[in-house]
Write a structure and sequence with these properties.
Elements lengths: L12 E3 L9 E3 L2 E2 L9 E3 L8 E4 L2 E6 L8 E2 L4 E2 L23 E6 L5 E2 L3 E6 L5 H16 L8 E5 L12 H14 L4 E8 L19 E5 L6 H20 L4 E4 L4 E6 L10 H14 L3 E4 L9 H5 L5 H20 L10 H5 L5 H9 L7 E5 L10 E4 L5 H11 L3 E6 L12 E5 L2 H6 L6 E2 L1 H4 L5 H16 L5 H4 L17
Parallel strand pairs: 11-12, 11-13, 13-14, 16-17, 16-20, 17-19, 18-19, 20-21, 21-22
Antiparallel strand pairs: 1-4, 2-3, 4-7, 5-6, 6-8, 9-10, 9-15
Length: 499
């Protein structure tokens, strides 16, 4: 008999842990009526047209026609359908922090913030200065190859396609400004250079404030005599400061100084079964020890938001989350789209059918801790613990916001495979299934497919992720860092008309 993964007693579908041929027994009273691809769903009972289909004990959609027991359940017979979310706001209190017993080796800054890396940041305020900051970073990184600055991780060019052709005020510019400010003060930067052209909408004066004043310098290309002159000038300034930057040394600090971005991309039918709940277990351990985690991607919690609301610390942040979802419904409608337009073709090939199913798996990354706060995009995290941040589901844009909010480590789960990296914060990639892990070993840090293989349980894999976070925060290079990823993923969220 072929094994089937049934996640909750209420479920009327199971997940295939392998390819299952037609006419194979999967329960005592159920045989497959057709081939079931691995990661896909199979009906465990007859389901009438119009009836809800349950996975994780939650509604993932409606049968678009009668479905027979043992039949493959996917886009051809399962459709998205709205339903009334039921939730009860519990009397939630933050988990009592345990005495400091977990530590990592980090870079303690003058403001007592702690970095997991020690980079030089080169931030463009507009696309027009993207080439300049990129050339400066290349020049510095080439210089460092032959020098012994063991505590300097290199230079990072934060280049992008925004900063002009937009309103100089309003929500879109506020998001952009907040994003740049978040990176300007990020603890993974020892020095920061902000470079503009001079005539753009996002004027340099917007960013010249008291934030990280000691370690930040500002330049306009138009004021400095052109591209080659400013590249030479800033490069020389950085080289002169390398000895000072190299004086930062790692110190043992409690993991209460960690803020971990919880992210997923290329999800599949196993994401909500293996990697995401295992990452959720690690998230709870971080929160229990005084640290913080940030879940994001508002379109990918849609349909599962009631599970977050039940964990909210108070009604104020519930209202904030509900307003964010309403904003997204209006935003997608304005652009001729709907929130149920997700999942992607790759998600569907991996076994996910509706946004409801995808969201239920995605929310599992947040574990079970109380939700301390709901942040807007790139809003600075101020309340330790588990946080939610509003963002699109597009990974580079979402992670950009999480790092701007303060994340100094990223955990990225994937079922279809990913080569994602993001400087200045190291990215740990977690595979949901062993097949993909074996194909992409050079890109994967952890195989959560061992849960499905019966080699480890969820708690053991969650602890493995937790320990990996501590090691990477202490300086161990993640696979994406070894492979040189992370220089091109900075992608601020552009909201509003391009003028």
């Amino acid at each position: 008999m072929f094994n089937i993964i049934k996640l909750n007693e209420k479920d009327n579908v199971g997940v295939a842990p392998m390819d299952i041929p037609e006419d194979k027994k999967i329960t005592e009273n159920c045989k497959t009526t057709e081939r079931i691809p691995f990661g896909h769903k199979v009906s465990l009972k007859d389901i009438g047209k119009g009836n809800f289909i349950f996975k994780y004990g939650q509604i993932i959609g409606t049968a678009s026609r009668d479905i027979k027991r043992g039949e493959h359940v996917h886009s051809h017979n399962l459709v998205f359908s709205e339903f009334e979310r039921e939730f009860e706001l519990k009397s939630n209190e933050n988990i009592k922090r345990v005495n400091d017993q977990y530590f990592f080796d980090g870079f303690v800054r003058a403001n007592k913030q702690v970095g997991t890396r020690n980079y030089i940041g080169l931030i463009s305020t507009v696309n027009c200065s993207a080439t300049v900051v990129n050339k400066i970073a290349q020049k510095i990184n080439n210089y460092l190859k032959d020098k012994n600055f063991e505590n300097v991780d290199g230079a990072v060019a934060l280049k992008h396609s925004s900063g002009c052709g937009t309103n100089t005020s309003g929500y879109g510019m506020n998001l952009f400004h907040r994003t740049i400010e978040g990176f300007k003060k990020h603890p993974n930067f020892g020095k920061v250079y902000v470079v503009g052209l001079g005539c753009e909408c996002a004027q340099l004066s917007m960013f010249q404030n008291e934030i990280n004043k000691v370690n930040t310098q500002y330049f306009n290309i138009q004021d400095e005599g052109g591209s080659s002159q400013i590249i030479e000038m800033i490069s020389n300034k950085i080289i002169d400061q390398l000895d000072e930057l190299n004086m930062f040394k790692r110190e043992k600090v409690p993991i209460s100084n960690l803020t971990v971005a919880l992210q997923c991309g290329g999800s599949d039918g196993y994401s909500g079964v293996t990697a995401n709940p295992a990452l959720g277990y690690a998230s709870d351990l971080i929160v229990k020890n005084g640290g913080s985690t940030i879940l994001a991607e508002t379109p990918e919690i849609y349909g599962a938001e009631h599970l977050l609301i039940e964990r909210a610390i108070d009604k104020k942040i519930v209202e904030k989350l509900q307003k964010q979802i309403s904003w997204w419904q209006n935003y997608t409608n304005m652009n001729g789209a709907t929130l149920d337009g997700n999942p992607s073709p790759g998600n569907k090939k991996g076994g996910l059918t509706t946004i409801l199913e995808k969201s239920l798996g995605a929310v599992a990354k947040g574990g079970n801790a109380v939700m301390s706060d709901v942040l807007d995009y790139a809003e600075t995290l101020t309340k330790s613990g588990f946080n939610f941040m509003n963002s699109p589901g597009y990974d580079p844009v979402s992670v950009t916001g999480q790092v701007a909010s303060g994340a100094n480590v990223i955990c990225f789960t994937t079922g279809r495979g990913s080569c994602f990296g993001f400087k200045p914060s190291p990215s740990i990639k977690i595979a949901t299934n062993t097949n993909m892990y074996n194909k992409m070993k050079e890109d994967m840090d952890i195989n959560a497919g061992s849960i499905m293989d019966g080699e480890k349980n969820l708690e053991e894999t969650g602890l493995e992720i937790f320990n990996e976070i501590i090691e990477v925060a202490s300086g161990k290079k993640s696979k994406s860092e070894i492979n040189g990823y992370g220089d091109d993923e900075f992608n601020p969220w552009i909201v509003g008309a391009t003028l």
